[in-house]
Specification:
The protein has 302 residues and is α/β, with parallel strands linked by helices. It has 9 helices and 14 strands. This is ABC-2 type transport system ATP-binding protein.
Length: 302
């Protein structure tokens, strides 16, 4: 299965929100979708699922192009689900009833609800009415509803909202599991470091298009990554070409061409100058976000 988007353009009157967006996603993939608010993430979701009309371009799933017709939209909604908004939950229904409803609408194979509930640690409250749920419990319920629907394509917008670190890791783990069933999962999230835990690729929206794609497997160049104020940059000495200085405090120094003693010396200097984390590894989603949306600052010292 593939999801193929070609030359997708979305306009509101004279205002173009997305322009000639192109990408192809294979099955068994989790894609992170990243962009500042107001740059088209939700619009992209809504266009693909046909909640809004598209003006130009095509959307093809498994070789079938889905158009703005009632027949195509109905067929599309059988294979695609969108993460439910908590406002759509029924306060006087319990969690089990919500999960059962999503399963019965989408999943003819009758996926076992009890297995989903146990996997997401919901047994203790799932039979209680939703009006008694906390924000995190509601968010887990919405996630469980999508798992029960079990569609080929899943769009998940800010699924980690309201979750504590334990449940963020739980949901991340379940995402890794369900992608093995051949799903295409697109996750929009502001938890950038968390995306590195489960996403195969990260799409960065900018200038009305997919501006940059970060492939976690292909991007393997190693950097020394740490934090340092501009007033202390001189203590690092002459920095290699392609060093990144981001957000006026984050330094990313490529290790290519540096011997091990030099790498260790830089690591120790960064540890001495800040109590924040220092690490070795490729650039992550957070570094790319800062590079793309906030720009690079000069690391040159006068």
């Amino acid at each position: 299965m593939t999801l193929d988007v070609r030359n997708l353009t979305i306009k509101y009157g004279d205002h173009t929100v997305l322009s000639e967006v192109n990408f192809n996603i294979e099955d068994g993939s989790i894609i992170g979708l990243v962009a500042p608010n107001g740059t088209g993430k939700t619009t992209l979701f809504n266009a693909i699922i046909r909640f809004i009309p598209i003006h130009e371009g095509s959307i093809t799933i498994d070789g079938r192009e889905y158009k703005n017709t009632s027949k195509d939209i109905k067929a599309l909604h059988k294979i695609v689900t969108f993460f439910p908004d908590q406002a759509e939950l029924y306060e006087d229904f319990n969690g089990y009833e919500h999960i059962e409803m999503y399963r019965d609408i989408w999943n003819k194979d009758k996926k076992n609800i009890d297995d989903i509930i146990t996997r997401l640690n919901m047994d203790s409250y799932v039979k209680n009415k939703v009006k008694t749920y906390s924000l995190g419990m509601r968010q887990r319920l919405c996630f469980a509803m999508m798992i029960a629907a079990n569609t080929k394509v899943m769009f998940m917008d800010e699924i980690m909202n309201g979750l504590d670190p334990v449940n963020v890791e739980l949901v991340s783990s379940v995402l890794r599991e369900i992608k093995e069933d051949g799903k295409i999962i697109i996750v929009a999230s502001h938890l950038l470091d968390n995306l590195d835990e489960y996403a195969d690729e990260i799409f960065f929206l900018d200038q009305k298009d997919v501006y940059y794609t970060y492939n976690r497997e292909k991007e393997t160049d190693e950097y020394i990554k740490g934090f340092i104020g501009k007033e202390n940059l001189g203590q690092l000495g002459t920095l290699p070409e392609h060093t990144l200085y981001l957000n006026n405090d984050r330094i990313c120094i490529p290790t290519s061409g540096l011997d091990r003693d030099t790498v260790n010396a830089v690591l120790n200097t960064l540890r001495d100058l800040s109590d924040r984390s220092v690490s070795l590894g490729p650039l992550g989603t957070n570094e790319h976000y800062l590079r793309i949306y906030k720009g690079e600052q000069s690391h040159e010292t006068s």
